[in-house]
TrEMBL record, chains A, B:
This is Cupin domain-containing protein. InterPro entries: cNMP-bd_dom, Cupin_2, PKS_Associated_Protein, RmlC-like_jellyroll, RmlC_Cupin_sf. It comes from Allosphingosinicella indica. CDD domains: cupin_YdbB-like. It holds the Pfam family Cupin_2. Residues 98-117 are annotated as: Disordered. PROSITE patterns: CNMP_BINDING_3. Residues 48-75 form the Cyclic nucleotide-binding domain.
């Protein structure tokens, strides 16, 4: 593989809530995503959910609190924990890590397609 | 857990080549590290090795080429691949991901201790 420049990858597409896989690590997809507005409440029963904000400010709403991440801040949502990522104050660019094949919505029926770039 | 501000964590210690675990994801340690100069050649027979440069410029020497990473650039060294990280042009700050318990040198006898911050 080659190195991955995250900003270049993020500049290569415009869609929101459509993660792109840029590398793989031990059966996990390393993804970049651009988001704006509200996602929906969901959980991943079998995997933690890794968020690292690269640009913008993201609220990760949990049932009992809100975790707000700016650039260079990360949070891992434990498996089985309901959460809703929300970008209320402009677009947010992030790095995500999930086991390959994990539906981003927690439900294969509604999951975004898997796209590698 | 709380969110993790990577710059704050990196500012909390000064040692080189001494990774600090700042979060966990599915049995993997999410670590920050400050490095300068040469590490040694090694490989991890059972795991890929994830590098994301946050500050500075890192050379990951492979036996057949050199991958140079700047801020916002990542590279995954495939398992079993000999490599040597080198920071020749000043200090480098990085995010690393490895399965918990992985010796950073590839050898438990010479590995850095596991430190959580």
């Amino acid at each position: 593989m080659d190195k991955v420049n995250l900003a270049e990858k993020l500049d290569s597409f415009a869609e929101h809530w459509s993660p792109r896989t840029v590398a793989q690590y031990n059966g996990n997809d390393i993804m970049v995503v651009r988001v704006q507005g509200e996602f929906h409440w969901h959980n991943h029963p079998d995997t933690d959910d890794f968020f690292l904000v690269l640009d913008g400010e993201l609220d990760i709403e949990l049932r009992d609190r809100v975790v707000t991440l700016g650039p260079g801040e990360l949070f891992v949502v434990p498996s089985g924990t309901e959460h809703r990522p929300v970008a209320r104050r402009g677009e947010v660019k992030m790095l995500l890590i999930e086991p390959s094949g994990t539906p981003n919505t927690g439900d294969p029926a509604t999951a975004a397609p898997h796209i590698c770039i």
